[in-house]
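Why should sequence recovery work at all? Because a backbone constrains its sequence more than one might expect. Tight turns favour small or flexible residues, buried strands favour hydrophobic ones, and helices have their own preferences. The token representation captures these environments compactly. In the example below, the structure is given first.
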């Protein structure tokens, strides 16, 4: 149980982030030649997103391809069989939030920009994205005003400094984020800081 919690905490804090100062954004917008000054991880993730959302794969075939890959990666057979036999009976959000290999495999693939895994999971990334987009469209009418959501996030000392230096700029998460409307504080032991960071959001996709 302790090992599982430690693994989940590690996955939670290992979300890849790009910090882009406001000055660099302005320079990139004004001159395309300055695009190479943006973080490579940010550029790669944006390109991959554009590609994966355009692909229209056969989900059944893609699931079978993922199953073969999972067996090669020594994923527990019971989890593989569950995915193979019931994938289409549950929603992408259900699978993503379930305590099994999909969540951690996806997070690690996005963290490492592991193209092989990202391609194998492409159909799932696309389905999850589309379901979240659909839910947002359905629920946005209930949220006509700006509201605040919260997320605790572990940062290295260098990332925390980059965050401070990028005030007014762009903070890009290369992942799906879980947030809460309830405020909370998150202690970052590595940095010895207490983060209590509200995120403003609008009902707009």
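From this structural description, the recovered sequence reads:
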């Amino acid at each position: 149980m302790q090992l599982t919690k430690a693994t989940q905490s590690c996955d939670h804090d290992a979300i890849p982030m790009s910090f882009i100062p406001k000055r660099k954004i302005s320079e990139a917008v004004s001159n395309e030649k300055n695009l190479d000054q943006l973080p490579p991880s940010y550029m790669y993730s944006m390109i991959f997103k554009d590609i994966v959302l355009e692909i229209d794969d056969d989900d059944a075939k893609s699931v079978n391809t993922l199953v073969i890959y999972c067996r090669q990666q020594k994923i527990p057979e019971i989890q593989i069989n569950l995915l193979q036999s019931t994938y289409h009976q549950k929603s992408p959000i259900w699978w993503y939030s379930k305590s099994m290999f999909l969540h951690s495999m996806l997070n690690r693939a996005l963290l490492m920009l592991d193209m092989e895994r990202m391609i194998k999971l492409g159909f799932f990334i696309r389905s999850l994205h589309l379901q979240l987009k659909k839910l947002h469209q359905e629920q946005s009418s209930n949220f006509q005003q700006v509201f605040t959501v919260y997320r605790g996030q572990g940062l290295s000392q260098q990332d925390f400094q980059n965050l401070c230096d990028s005030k007014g700029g762009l903070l890009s998460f290369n992942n799906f984020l879980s947030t809460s409307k309830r405020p909370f504080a998150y202690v970052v032991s590595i940095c010895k800081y207490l983060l209590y960071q509200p995120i403003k959001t609008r009902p707009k996709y």
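A few observations help interpret the result. The chain has one domain: 2-201.
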